[in-house]
Amino acid sequence: MPLIPEEPQIHEKAQGPRATPASGRTAPTPRPVPGPRPAAPPRPGRPGPTRPAPPAQRASRDASASAAPKPGSSGPAAPATPQIQLIPASPEGALDAAEEAVDLLLDSGRTPGDVLVITTGEPHPWAAHELSFGESAYWAQHDAGDDVFYADAALAARAASRPVVVVAVNGGPEAAAVTALSAAHSRAGALLIVCGDPQRINSLLGAGV
């Protein structure tokens, strides 16, 4: 009977390549995803933030910082168009969203004097409290420029420009929203944050506000 040839033995060293990295190289390790920033300590009179700073917000701040003119550059810097960030919120929740945005801005390194907050409906409790002492005392704090300043749509036109302006679309007539957004856009040096209904805000911004 015919002989069946023996199967050739396959030695370990002759086998195909193993799924191991090449000699002298290590397999790539996935880069860790940064965790959320620690929450900012609460400012007096209200609770602190409950969520980490949105990456887009930090990116906008970094972009604006990198766009600053370098020392020794000649000629005045061209006026910059502020970055716009929309934070979806209902009219009832817009003021809380604006408050949280302020806390996150301070946590990311902004100073209180960098921030102006404008409301379209009910004024912020701080503004209502300070106005109870008279407009002179209220605007004196604005002129000092060492703390976050709050104004409603009717008073926003008198406020000076600041690097960051936050708008809370917390109700009020359509005209108030138009006035607030227009004032905010012209006064925001680096970043404009609008808290409210995105569809409504986009329609107002698209209309040239």
Task: Please give a structural write-up.
The chain is an alpha/beta fold. Helix content is 33%, strand content 15%. It has 7 helices and 5 strands. The protein has helices at 55-66, 94-107, 125-131, 135-144, 153-156, 174-187, 198-206; strands at 83-88, 115-119, 149-152, 162-168, 188-196. It has a 5-stranded parallel β-sheet with strand order 1-5-4-2-3, sandwiched between helices. It is globular. Mean pLDDT is 75; it is low at 10-78.
Average pLDDT confidence is 75
Largest sheet: 5 strands, parallel
Continuous helix count = 7
Structural category is: alpha/beta
**Strand tally, please?**
5
Question: In what range is the share of β-strand residues?
Answer: 5-15%
Low-confidence stretches: 10-78
In short:
The chain has helices at 55-66, 94-107, 125-131, 135-144, 153-156, 174-187, 198-206, and strands spanning 83-88, 115-119, 149-152, 162-168, 188-196. By secondary structure, the protein is an alpha/beta fold.
SSE layout:
Elements: H1 55-66, E1 83-88, H2 94-107, E2 115-119, H3 125-131, H4 135-144, E3 149-152, H5 153-156, E4 162-168, H6 174-187, E5 188-196, H7 198-206
Parallel strand pairs: 1-5, 2-3, 2-4, 4-5
Task: Name its key features.
alpha/beta; five-stranded parallel beta sheet; 5 strands
